[in-house]
Write a structure and sequence with these properties.
With 476 residues, this protein is an alpha/beta fold. It folds into 2 domains: 149 residues, Aspartate Aminotransferase, domain 1; 274 residues, Type I PLP-dependent aspartate aminotransferase-like (Major domain) (Aspartate Aminotransferase, domain 2), CATH 3.40.640. Helices cover 37% and strands 13% of the residues. The strands form 3 sheets. A 7-stranded mixed sheet has the order 3-9-8-7-6-4-5, with helices on both faces. Strands 10-11-14-13 form a 4-stranded antiparallel sheet. Strands 1-2-12 form a 3-stranded mixed sheet. β13 and β14 form a beta hairpin. α14 packs parallel to α16 and α15 packs across α16.
Length: 476
């Protein structure tokens, strides 16, 4: 018996009608660039014709999307449940104006916060802050860690008049020296505070003032794991020793922030044992342990939260989110709740219409077992990437993934870029990670047929780059 597709009525497959980007995209780029930087645009999308795992662009190309708007698309394009909710009036309460949620939130917002958002909360994290973006989530998570350390130093007392006076002069004693540990290759956002923890690319940070915060080597595992155990154990031990030394030497360290898998930094992995030990040593020293799940959260790793796969001795202190969650925010342990209001605040505190959409997204995820689908499809995807690597060892290495959060390395940066360009011309939207990785960030409705369609295109590009003759069809 044939299993029905998770996304009904999506295109049958890739269809390439023009070069990508095509002439209509390039016309739009010229118009766009008159008022906004359009140099980063891959092509322009026909938003209403795109469906499921396929982007349709303005030139009529139907493109298989592996990139997901940098991991932001949970249900594919124009999922019937979301369109039905919109047309049926479910979002009417959020469509007429955008409220300041900390001042006069609609009653429906409370239903989302103590309903869907609480239902998917990481274990042990009962408190929630919502914002708009991932960078805001990280920024305010770090501020929460600073508040915690300052409150500990004051032994719970209110700030003095002198504390408040010096605050307004940007001269707070001790506070200005607080620090956050982050890891080489980490990406935590582009706002001014979060940039001090971001370590992925120099161009992100160039010419912007930054805090002198410590950085530790991320122990990027080599794959296959079974063949690299000694090396992986050694680099993880070195990284942990560096963290311990920093924490023991500097009482000004308020937090440690880390991604479960480094997304912008090259899809780099570490073991569950490494993260468990980080959690243990940060808890011993009462340093806030922040897990940045902006890119890994909401199902892409085959679990709702990637850190669920670590079997931590106790929950993280803070878990940040955005991207597939549609709005930004962070969950945190109740003991981190600020004593005073207004400490963590902005005008909007999130986006109600995105919260309403998320409520529907979570319902579909549960109804269709999309996290189970990601786990199953991810196993197939990594097997196929390993097969690609075995067939073209001069081009590919390090096939890896958890769920469909997967990647493979090209032999060098220029080859990676050539592969991504070649895939684009064959109707596959892909993206880079780090200096030579190709990353997979598909929707949760990505299935086996999409894996095979993508891998066929990889084979076609690889044959061209390795000098092998192209086959008559697109198959491997």
């Amino acid at each position: 018996m044939t299993t029905p597709p998770l996304f009904p009525d999506e295109p049958a497959g890739i269809h390439v009608a023009t070069a990508i980007p095509g002439p209509k995209s390039e016309e739009l780029r010229v118009r766009h660039a008159r008022v906004q930087d359009a140099r980063t645009v891959h092509f322009y999308q026909d938003a209403t014709r795109s469906r499921g795992n396929y982007i349709v662009d303005v030139d009529g190309n139907t493109i298989l999307d592996l990139y997901g708007h940098i991991a932001c698309v949970p249900l594919g394009y124009n999922h019937p449940a979301l369109l039905d909710a919109w047309r049926g009036g479910r979002f009417d309460w959020a469509a007429g104006y955008r409220p300041a949620l900390g001042i006069a939130p609609p009653a429906e917002w409370v239903g989302i916060v103590d309903g869907a958002l609480s239902r998917v909360a990481p274990k042990g994290l009962t408190q929630l802050v919502t914002v708009t973006t991932g960078a805001e989530a990280v920024e305010n998570a770090i501020k929460t860690a600073f508040v915690r350390l300052a409150r500990k130093r004051r032994e719970g007392a209110a700030p003095s008049a002198e504390d408040l006076r010096l605050t307004m002069l940007n001269r707070q004693p001790h506070t200005n020296d607080m620090k956050v540990i982050s890891f080489e290759g980490g990406f935590h956002g582009r706002s001014l505070g979060s940039l001090s923890a971001t370590r992925s690319k120099a161009i992100h940070k160039l010419d912007f003032p930054a805090f002198e915060w410590p950085v530790v080597a991320f122990p990027a595992n080599r794959f296959p794991l079974t063949e690299n155990l000694e090396y992986n154990n050694e680099i993880e031990a070195r990284s942990l020793a560096s963290v311990r030394d920093l924490l023991d030497a500097d009482p000004q360290i308020a937090a440690l922030i880390i991604e479960p898998i480094q997304g912008e930094g090259g899809d780099r992995h570490a073991s569950a044992a490494f993260f468990c030990e980080l959690r243990r040593i940060s808890a011993e020293r009462q340093v806030t342990f922040i897990v940045d799940e902006v890119q890994t959260g909401a199902g892409g790793t085959g679990r709702f939260w990637a850190h669920e796969g670590w079997d931590l001795p106790e929950p993280p202190d803070i878990v940040t989110f955005s991207k597939k969650m549609q709005l930004g925010g962070y969950y945190f342990r109740p003991e981190l709740f600020p004593a005073e209001p207004w400490r963590i605040f902005n005008t909007f505190l999130g986006d109600p219409i995105r919260g309403a959409q998320l409520e529907v997204i979570i319902e579909v995820m549960e109804r269709d077992d999309l996290i189970g689908n990601v786990a199953r499809t991810g196993d197939l995807l990594v097997r196929e990437l390993s097969g690609l690597q075995a067939r073209y060892p001069g081009l590919f290495s390090q096939a890896r993934g958890v769920g469909t959060y997967a990647a493979i390395d090209a032999r060098d940066p220029a080859t990676r870029d050539a592969i991504v360009r070649g895939l684009q011309q064959l109707g596959v939207e892909a993206g880079g990670s780090g200096d030579r990785s190709i990353r997979f960030r598909p929707a949760l409705v990505f299935e086996a047929r999409h894996v095979h369609e993508a891998i066929d295109r990889f084979h076609h590009v690889a044959r061209g780059l390795s000098g092998q003759p192209a086959s008559a069809g697109m198959g491997a």
